[in-house]
Amino acid sequence: MVRGMGKYLVNLPAVTGRRLVIALPLIWLAVFFFLPLVETLQVSFTSPRRGIPPYEPLWGIGDDGFFTNFTTGNYALLLQYWSDYFGPAFNSIKLAFFSTLVCLLFAYPMAWWIARSNEKWRTILLVLVMLPFWTSSLLRIYALIGLLNPNGFINAAGLWLGLIDAPIQMMQTDFSIYMGMVLTYLPLMILPLYAVMVRLDADLLDAAADLGGSGIQIFRTIILPLTLPGIIAGSLLVFIPAVGEFVIPALLGGPDQLMMGKVLWTEFFRNRDWPVASAIAMLLLAILTVPIIYARYQDGRDAVAETPNPKQAEAG
Amino acid sequence: MAPFIRLKSISKHFADVVAVDDLSLDIEKGELFCLLGASGCGKSTLLRLLAGFESPTKGVIEIDGQDMAGVAPADRPVNFMFQNYALFPHMSVADNIGYGLRRAGMRGTELAERVDSLLKLVRLHKLGGRKPHQLSGGQRQRVALARALARRPKLLLLDEPLAALDKKLREDTQFELVDIQEKLGTTFIVVTHDQEEAMTLAGRIGIMDAGQLVQVDAPRRLYERPKSSFVADFLGTISFVDAVVASRDQTSITIGGYLNICAACDDDLPVGAAVKLAIRPEKIYLSRTKSGNVNEIEVVVEDLAYLGFATNYRVKTASGQMFKLQQQQRRSLDAPLSWGETGYVHFDPQDVIVLQD
């Protein structure tokens, strides 16, 4: 009996240690990610009120017993005034889409070049890609303003060299917004692309060339399909935060470009209508995640279908 | 007629490394030629030069009478089989094999039939729909072979084609490779570091060292009559005796000093010339008693390893000369010599290789 206990005691630290390693991040995710999400979902189904917090509780037990304030009114409101929200949503998605596209076009050759460099250079170049992350993004935006201003560096240099007669309006344009977006999000595109490209066996390219593939054919038939996971990962990493981005458009863009992030901010802090703001957030989340989850699900099914059957492979 | 492949004074430099150094070689049509050497000897670089992935720093490569300078890999009548096979992981077996054919514009039933006949050639019919990662190592090797043969190259280059397979599979695949080569009549150049593989596969072997061909010959001649101590030492096991010619007649030389060895030799070696004698282990006989043969030397057993079919011995003469020898166990009742025992070795003068380097 005592000896049996001893066995358990010896195993105890190992088992609990392993469980702890898995449990801690799970608890962290549950507390700081899942609970706020549930809270937001709850709030989106209640009505606003004056007070703290500025919304009715979804349910509770009061003097008359159980009560609920469940309403779909916030979503109905969004549907009723959809044109007010559609514009900003469209602007946000358009901005995110084109930012992703430009990032991809810039990052693809850059990541390729880094991945094909020799090992010593690769490390240096990767550090250079990540270096901007170590400074405040706000600082980088202000630096960009300093460059693009009518009396900023570029215009001053252009005037001084006689290339332009008058300052070019670069701030508060699409150009300045996209500059800011690409500068901020480019590393998020380069890194996943680099990760797939560095694993791409150079022999595959030689093999394709040996079998008669031209440069374009090798790109289309070998490089593109094999780097597609990187393209998808990088695009998601850029697109998802870019949709909610409102600092960059606010600082670099003009007043006419209303973004979803800004609308949310207004609903939350100016109108203090948390339920409607939550409903917007939930709707946006649904619009963005459903296609991604669906795509992942399809991927998963393909992967399952392709899983090798070792017995069959050996027998053949 | 000019040889099918002619390499004339080829050199290839990478920065300050000389991978191939002023190398010349002729290979005939339909030959199965093996380039054998340790890693880093330049054999793979030579193969990549033939494929067109690299261009020579100096020298001329001719294939089928045509100068290959400036000809892209795709435009050469040459295909390459990679050491790790380099199968396209996202394509099925059939698409891998058909890749070169599609690039040549082949489509539809013609393509399907050609891929099908290639799958049959390498005994992989029914597996055309699989992805490379669903195949075993041996199957992958055969897909790579079929893909490289699809465009009917006049010359196929194989970089360590069997290195990734385990020993048993490698032996079967060796013969299969030779069969396919004979059936198609394609010229094969195989690069390998495995001498057994080279011996079984090749009609001729070129042994490479430091970017140069040390000796090119049939496997038997390389083993029995190496031209340098490097080749003698590289292929199999051998015992060397450093010596000076003491006397000579028409057909043999005798060395004096600590050991008296007589060796058959046609070369015109004067008395006093420094030579190196080399003797293969299986050509040396070991016995307990004196037999009165030529080249009989008293030895002490230093070390032995029982292999079942034979026993490997390391024996030492009184003067300190080591011999490595292998004795077959023909009669199981023979009482073998054991550690520290004294015996006698002897070998035929015909089996002594006289080297002058």
Please give a structural write-up:
The complex is a heterodimer of chains A (316) and B (357). Chain A contains 13 helices and two strands. By secondary structure, chain A is mainly α. Chain A has a domain at 81-272: MetI-like fold (Orthogonal Bundle), CATH 1.10.3720. A two-stranded antiparallel sheet of chain A has the order 1-2. In chain A, helix 2 crosses helix 3, helix 2 (73-80) crosses helix 12 and helix 7 packs across helix 9 (215-244). The longest helix of chain A has 42 residues, at 2-43. Chain B folds into two domains: 5-233, Rossmann fold (3-Layer(aba) Sandwich), CATH 3.40.50; 237-355, Beta Barrel (OB fold (Dihydrolipoamide Acetyltransferase, E2P)). Chain B contains eight helices and 20 strands. In chain B, the strands form four sheets. In chain B, strands 6-7-8-3-9-10 form a six-stranded mixed sheet, sandwiched between helices. A five-stranded antiparallel sheet of chain B has the order 13-12-11-14-20. Chain B has a five-stranded antiparallel sheet with strand order 15-19-16-17-18, with no helix packed on it.
